[in-house]
């Protein structure tokens, strides 16, 4: 039987046409990176890319969003690159620090050299360089005797240092005009470059480093309903103002017309209608998504969850209290990182006069009785009045006592004898008391 999907999401009615790019469903075209995750494929099946012998196929899963919030999307074949220069300020801010500092240095150096060259040309055309030793000659700029001195005068003019050794005279109108132009353009360059550096330094991207997301997401019952939950926390004492949380389900989708959407985005309701998506993030909070009829997990059971391929992207936004700038932190959970039948371990405890958060247990979970059926099946069972089946719980592991230390064997033996003696005395006393009670009766 032929596979249902076409070549990498090609429409069913266009399967006979060749794609312009090489196929990536073959192993030789895949490049392993540190941003891929190896998961187990299905067993059996006759489609290309599966193991016909019935063995487990290993394939690589590419994350859409990394755990640290970086998006694995690269823009290629962009022909209209002039758009980046249209918004040059944002382009400079988005550059890496080494390129930003390089541009910063080149801009200032270029302006100094350019205006220094003009000052030198004015002195050269006026003949000031030929009368450097003539005391009766009035030059355009005093003590300007070459290109180096012209370059130094350009730096002094643009940075308003003014050492007082080189100064323009009133007998040079072209020099006065150039001085006005350099002063104005220098102010514009200073405002642009200093503003760019200030925005880049004050970017709230590093603030997201202290916003934590749990390593795993869990599915369990809360208030008699199946829920998808994950935990968020803030490590700083300066809080995120107007914090809000939202989530997206990234999964492949094929429409009824045969169109294949490889990275379809579906909203996951985490309390938008009730206001629970607005967070007061003082202590770690567990974000909950209820499996209802509008949920994309409405018909997902535990068995089906193990076969699905999806990614849940969570986005936390808010304003930094110290700067007032908007901050965004992102993370994601693959289908293999969603644990069915687990709950998060409590991390908040009451101390004397304050609450303490134990971040060592922030990512810890523990098993809880959770039905393996989907939310839709549970609702149907509840309407019929039938009991909800729960999987058998495995008994907790029995911890064996540690072996006694060889140096303390004799001491422990004596303590055991004394303990046995005390135990026998207690038993005798209890027996005597019982016999006395029997005698009174």
TrEMBL record:
Gene coding for it: LOC112227427
Residue ranges with Basic and acidic residues bias: 8-28
Membrane topology qualifier: Multi-pass membrane protein
Gene Ontology molecular function: G-protein activated inward rectifier potassium channel activity
Keyword field: Ion channel, Ion transport, Membrane, Potassium, Potassium transport, Transmembrane, Transmembrane helix, Transport, Voltage-gated channel
Subcellular location: Membrane
Segments forming a coiled coil: none
Protein name, per record: G protein-activated inward rectifier potassium channel 1
Record carries keyword Hydrolase: no
Residue ranges of every copy of the Inward rectifier potassium channel C-terminal domain listed in the record: 211-380
Residue ranges with Pro residues bias: 389-404
Keyword Ion transport annotated: yes
Pfam families for the chain: IRK, IRK_C
Native organism: Oncorhynchus tshawytscha (Chinook salmon)
Compositional bias of kind Acidic residues: 409-418
Residues annotated as transmembrane: 101-122, 176-199
Gene Ontology CC: one annotated term: plasma membrane
Entry's family note: Belongs to the inward rectifier-type potassium channel (TC 1.A.2.1) family. KCNJ3 subfamily.
Region (Disordered): 1-28, 385-441
Catalytic activity reported: K(+)(in) = K(+)(out)
InterPro entries: Ig_E-set (IPR014756), IRK_C (IPR041647), K_chnl_inward-rec_Kir (IPR016449), K_chnl_inward-rec_Kir3.1 (IPR003274), K_chnl_inward-rec_Kir_cyto (IPR013518), Kir_TM (IPR040445)
GO biological process: nervous system development; potassium ion import across plasma membrane; regulation of monoatomic ion transmembrane transport
Residue ranges of domain Potassium channel inwardly rectifying transmembrane in the record: 65-204
């Amino acid at each position: 039987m032929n596979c249902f999907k076409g070549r990498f999401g090609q429409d069913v009615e266009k399967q006979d046409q060749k794609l312009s790019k090489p196929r990536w469903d073959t192993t030789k075209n895949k490049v392993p990176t540190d941003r891929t995750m190896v998961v187990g494929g299905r067993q059996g099946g006759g489609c290309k890319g599966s193991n016909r012998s019935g063995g487990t196929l290993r394939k690589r899963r590419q994350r859409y969003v990394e755990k640290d919030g970086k998006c694995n999307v690269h823009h290629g074949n962009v022909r209209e690159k002039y758009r980046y220069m249209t918004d040059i300020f944002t382009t400079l801010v988005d550059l890496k620090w080494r390129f930003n500092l390089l541009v910063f240095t080149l801009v200032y150096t270029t302006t100094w050299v350019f205006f220094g060259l003009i000052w030198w040309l004015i002195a050269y055309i006026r003949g000031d360089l030929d009368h450097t030793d003539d005391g009766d000659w009035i030059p355009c700029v005093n003590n300007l005797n070459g290109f180096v001195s012209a370059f130094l005068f350009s730096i002094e003019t643009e940075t308003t240092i003014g050492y007082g050794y080189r100064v323009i005279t009133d007998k040079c109108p072209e020099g006065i005009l150039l001085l006005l132009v350099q002063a104005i353009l220098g102010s514009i360059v200073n405002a642009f470059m200093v503003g760019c550096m200030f925005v880049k330094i004050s970017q709230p991207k590093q603030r997201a480093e202290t916003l934590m997301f749990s390593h795993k997401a869990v599915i369990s019952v809360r208030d008699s309903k199946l829920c998808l939950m994950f935990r968020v926390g803030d490590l700083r004492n300066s809080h995120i103002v107007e914090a809000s949380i939202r989530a997206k389900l990234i999964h492949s989708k094929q429409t009824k017309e045969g169109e294949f959407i490889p990275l379809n985005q579906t909203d996951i309701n985490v309390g938008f209608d009730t206001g629970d998506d607005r967070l007061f993030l003082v202590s770690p909070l567990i974000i909950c998504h209820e499996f209802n009829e509008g949920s994309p997990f409405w018909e997902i059971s535990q068995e089906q969850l193990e076969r699905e391929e999806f990614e849940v992207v969570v986005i936390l936004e808010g304003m930094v209290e110290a700067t007032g700038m908007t901050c965004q932190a992102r993370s994601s959970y693959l289908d293999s990182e969603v644990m069915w039948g687990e709950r998060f371990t409590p991390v908040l405890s009451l101390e004397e006069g304050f609450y303490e958060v134990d971040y060592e247990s922030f990512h810890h979970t523990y098993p809880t009785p959770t039905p393996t059926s989907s939310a839709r099946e549970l609702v149907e069972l509840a309407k019929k009045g039938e009991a909800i089946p729960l999987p058998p719980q495995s008994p907790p592991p029995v911890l064996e006592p540690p072996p006694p230390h060889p140096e303390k064997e004799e001491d422990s033996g004596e303590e055991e004898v004394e303990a046995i003696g005390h135990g026998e005395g207690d038993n005798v006393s209890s027996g005597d008391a019982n016999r006395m009670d029997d005698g009174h009766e």
